[in-house]
Design goal:
about 20% strand; 10-stranded mixed sheet; alpha/beta
């Protein structure tokens, strides 16, 4: 019999599973608390359950608990980047960022990515598989256990396209914000997307109070297609109409992510195009100096160009910030840490999954 992934079950589903085992409903509450509040790493830690019940749980359920294989901590700002190994040997990465307003964790939603954005290391090996609900939850749980500190903000902006793993991400958000679990406020969660227009509309209909961050990266379709293959399927009119729908449904301001690449999307004319594109929208532009990766020939914009781009937006009353660089001394852009780990093992003759 295939084991059930217990950490991916809602409390109601867990009650049904336990009823089938002849257990009383209150046991579900005890177990759910161990899983999602006390952050147990195995059934043996559930000390208020009998040994007989723990053995039964072991036989029936799979218990997902990520294994940390590497951790890098910034000496500048305390940012920590983690590599975790999954049960099948796959490697994912997550980041803990420390701010005055609380700790924020950036998680991966897939092993690899199939979106193909030219400036991103996450796409270099393609998509291997979606992460399960339990694996996404345990990125946060593992970091909270390791750090000993409460996580108050979660960003789905690591490896993978969250809306390409739609059903699991929606269930993950319900469980992460469940008052019987870690109970992170929906308003403290940001979900990133490169622009899957119909999924943005579906997501709006879920009625979450989260922030949607669109990876925009260019002010017109022609430039966007050069750096984002997804733009060949969804043009800007479709994507922005979906973002408008999201705002109308949720009342949540859209964040537009704009990675600045030297000579590609960072000149004054493109800044003015961006002004015209977003004028009148309730939005925020987040300018991101791109992290160069050796497999691509894209370079980070100069400080002068970045500031000039920002000034043009501000003069036209567009809400804009330059993303603060966290963990600069660790120097690992999204996907690079995982890739460098795999490359190192390959050089050493070891074996590693995706």
């Amino acid at each position: 019999m295939e084991k059930v992934d217990i950490k991916s079950l809602t409390i109601e589903e867990l009650k049904q599973e336990l009823a089938g085992m002849g257990e009383k409903p209150f046991r579900a509450g005890q177990i759910y608390e161990w899983l999602h509040v006390k952050l147990a790493r195995g059934f043996d830690e559930m000390t208020n359950l009998s040994k007989d019940l723990r053995n039964k749980l072991e036989e029936r359920f799979e218990f997902v608990s990520l294994k940390m294989v590497e951790k890098f901590e910034s000496q500048i700002d305390g940012t920590c980047k983690f590599l975790f190994e999954l049960a099948d040997g796959s490697i994912i990465e997550s980041v803990l960022m420390k701010y005055q307003h609380g700790n924020s964790v950036c998680i991966s939603t897939q092993v690899g990515c199939r979106m193909g954005c030219r400036f991103c290391a996450s796409t270099l090996g393609g998509l291997e598989r979606n992460l399960r609900v339990s694996e996404m939850l345990d990125e946060i749980y593992s970091i909270q256990r390791i750090s000993g500190e409460r996580v108050s903000n979660v960003v789905l902006m690591g490896t993978g396209e969250p809306l390409d793993n739609y059903d699991n991400v929606v269930r993950f958000l319900h469980m992460l914000t469940d008052e019987k679990g870690l109970h992170i406020s929906q308003r403290n969660i940001t979900v990133s997307t490169c622009g899957l227009a119909e999924r943005i509309r579906d997501f709006a209909d879920e009625d979450f109070a989260v922030t949607l961050a669109l990876s925009l990266h260019a002010p017109n379709n022609e430039d966007r297609r050069k750096i984002m293959p997804i733009a060949n399927k969804y043009n800007l009119d479709e994507v922005l109409a979906a973002c408008d729908y999201f705002y109308d449904k949720t009342g949540r301001r859209i964040s537009f992510e704009y990675s600045l690449v030297e000579g590609v999307n960072d000149n004054a004319e493109q800044a003015m195009e961006l002004v015209r594109l977003v004028k009148g929208k309730n939005c925020h532009i987040n300018l991101i100096p791109v992290n160069p990766i050796k497999e691509r020939d894209y370079k980070r914009s100069t400080g002068k160009n970045i500031q000039n781009f920002k000034n043009i937006l501000e003069k036209n009353r567009i809400n804009v910030t330059i993303r603060r660089e966290m963990g600069a001394d660790i120097n690992a852009a999204c996907g690079q840490l995982r890739k460098s780990y795999k490359d190192k093992l390959t050089r050493q003759g070891g074996e590693v999954q995706s």
